C-alpha cells in the first residue's frame, strides 16, 4: 500500500468513530480539531508499522486513533501556550471558543486517546500503554526544554537534539513501534523500527530548521521565522560556537533584540554563511537520514517491505538515494 491508501483508510475509520456527545461544549471542539485536516502522518505510521509485520494492518486502527488524538491534544495546548490564532488556516480551539474550553477539551482528548488503547488485551495492551506513557511524558519534557531555551544563549547542540527528539521525533518513533507491537513483531524488530522513526524524526526536524531559513516561500514558510522568533536552532548554536568575538556579540544582539527591522534575517544569515553552518546542518541531516536508512536494513522483513520503507523515508526527506 502507498501513503494515500493508508491515509484514506484512516480517515474513513476516523469519520465513523468520532461524534459529538454530551456536553456538546466539551466534545464539539474535539470534533473540530480532529477533523481540521493535516497530513495524518502519525496514524499512517502506526498502520505502516503494523503492516511491515502483519497483513492485518486494520488491527492497528485503534492505536492509530490513539496517536492522532494525542497529537491533536498537544496542538490544542501548544496553541494556547503560543497564543496562536490560527491552526491549519482556521481558528485555534481557544480562539474559536475560549481559553477554558481549550484547556478542558485538550485534557479530555488526551484521556480519550488513552482510552483507545483499551481495545487491546494482555501483553499487547501493557506494551502499548507503557510506550504511550513514556512518550507522552517525553513530549512534555521536550516542550519544557523548548520554553527554557527561549531564556538561554548557552544551549549546547546535544541539548538541542534532545529537545527536538522529545518534542517531535519520539512520537514518530512511538507511532511505528505501536504498529509493530499490535502486529506482535519480535522485540528486536520493535526496537529497530523505533530507532528508524527516531532518526528519521530528528532528520525531518533538522530539515525543517534548514528550510525555515534557506527554503523560503517556495516551501510555504515565512523566510527566517525562527530567526525573527529568536529560536535557538542548530544554525544559531553552531554559529555561536564558530564565530569570533565580534560576530558572536552581533549574533547575540540580533537574537536578544525584539526589533524585527527589515534586513534582520539577512544580517543573521550573513553570519551563518560566513561560518558555513548551513553546510554543517545539511551534513547533520544527511547523517541522521542515513542512520534511519541503516535501521531499515537491520529489520527482519522481506526486501520489498524494506524498499517501501526506504522509499517513504527518501520521499519525506526529498532525497533520491
In short:
The chain is mostly helical. The protein is built from 15 helices and 2 strands. The longest helix has 28 residues, at 122-149.
List the helices and strands and how they pair.
Blueprint lengths: L2 H14 L7 H11 L6 H11 L9 H22 L3 E2 L2 E2 L1 H4 L2 H18 L5 H28 L7 H26 L4 H28 L10 H5 L4 H9 L2 H12 L7 H11 L2 H21 L5 H14 L5
Helix pairs in contact: 1-3, 2-6, 3-4, 3-8, 4-6, 4-8, 7-8, 8-9, 9-14, 11-12, 11-14, 14-15
Note down, in words, how this protein is organized:
With 321 residues, this protein is mainly α. The protein has two domains: 1-185, Farnesyl Diphosphate Synthase (Orthogonal Bundle), CATH 1.10.600; 203-321, Farnesyl Diphosphate Synthase, CATH 1.10.600.10. It contains 15 helices and two strands. The protein has helices spanning 3-16, 24-34, 41-51, 61-82, 93-96, 99-116, 122-149, 157-182, 187-214, 225-229, 234-242, 245-256, 264-274, 277-297, 303-316; strands spanning 86-87, 90-91. Strands 1-2 form a two-stranded antiparallel sheet. 40% of the residues are buried.
* Proportion in β-strands: under 5%
For the biggest β-sheet, the strand order reads 1-2
**Number of separate domains:** 2
CATH H-level homologous superfamily name of the largest domain: Farnesyl Diphosphate Synthase
By DSSP (H or I, 4+ residues per run), the number of helices equals 15
Q: Indicate the CATH topology of the largest domain.
A: Farnesyl Diphosphate Synthase
For the CA atoms, what is the radius of gyration?
21 Å
Query: Which CATH C-level class of the largest domain is it?
Result: Mainly Alpha
Overall, the morphology is globular
**Could you list the spans in which at least 5 consecutive residues all have pLDDT below 50?**
none
Per DSSP E runs of 2 or more residues, the count of β-strands stands at 2
How far from one another are the termini? Answer: 21 Å
Mean of the pLDDT scores?
94
What helical percentage do the residues reach? over 70%
Question: Structural class of the secondary elements?
Answer: mainly alpha
Identify the CATH architecture of the largest domain. Orthogonal Bundle
> SSE order in H/E notation?
HHHHEEHHHHHHHHHHH
How would a crystallographer describe the biggest sheet? 2 strands, antiparallel
Amino acid at each position: 500500500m502507498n501513503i494515500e491508501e493508508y491515509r484514506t483508510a484512516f480517515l474513513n475509520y476516523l469519520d465513523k468513530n468520532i461524534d459529538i456527545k454530551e456536553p456538546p461544549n466539551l466534545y464539539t471542539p474535539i470534533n473540530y480539531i480532529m477533523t481540521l485536516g493535516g497530513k495524518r502522518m502519525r496514524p499512517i505510521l502506526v498502520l505502516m508499522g503494523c503492516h511491515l509485520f502483519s497483513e492485518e494492518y486494520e488491527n492497528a486502527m485503534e492505536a492509530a486513533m490513539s496517536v492522532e488524538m494525542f497529537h491533536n491534544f498537544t496542538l490544542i495546548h501548544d496553541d494556547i501556550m503560543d497564543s496562536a490564532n490560527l491552526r491549519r488556516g482556521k481558528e485555534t480551539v481557544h480562539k474559536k471558543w475560549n481559553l477554558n474550553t481549550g484547556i478542558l477539551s485538550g485534557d479530555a482528548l488526551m484521556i480519550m486517546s488513552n482510552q483507545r488503547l483499551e481495545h487491546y488485551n494482555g501483553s499487547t495492551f501493557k506494551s502499548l500503554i507503557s510506550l504511550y506513557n513514556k512518550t507522552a511524558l517525553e513530549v512534555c519534557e521536550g516542550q519544557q526544554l523548548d520554553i527554557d531555551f527561549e531564556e538561554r544563549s548557552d544551549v549546547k547542540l546535544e541539548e538541542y537534539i534532545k529537545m527536538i527528539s522529545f518534542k517531535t521525533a519520539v512520537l514518530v518513533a512511538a507511532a511505528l513501534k505501536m504498529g509493530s507491537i499490535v502486529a506482535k513483531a519480535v522485540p528486536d524488530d520493535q526496537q529497530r523500527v523505533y530507532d528508524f522513526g527516531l532518526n528519521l524524526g530528528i532528520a525531518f526536524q533538522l530539515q525543517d530548521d534548514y528550510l525555515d531559513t534557506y527554503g523560503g516561500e517556495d516551501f510555504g514558510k515565512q523566510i527566517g521565522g525562527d530567526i525573527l522568533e529568536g529560536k535557538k536552532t542548530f544554525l544559531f548554536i553552531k554559529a555561536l560556537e564558530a564565530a569570533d568575538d565580534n560576530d558572536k556579540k552581533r549574533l547575540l544582539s540580533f537574537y536578544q533584540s525584539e526589533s524585527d527591522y527589515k534586513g534582520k534575517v539577512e544580517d543573521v544569515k550573513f553570519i551563518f554563511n560566513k561560518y558555513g553552518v548551513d553546510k554543517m546542518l545539511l551534513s547533520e541531516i544527511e547523517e541522521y537520514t542515513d542512520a534511519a536508512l541503516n535501521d531499515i536494513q537491520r529489520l527482519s522483513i522481506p526486501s520489498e517491505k524494506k524498499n517501501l520503507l526506504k522509499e517513504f523515508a527518501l520521499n519525506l526527506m526529498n532525497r533520491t538515494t
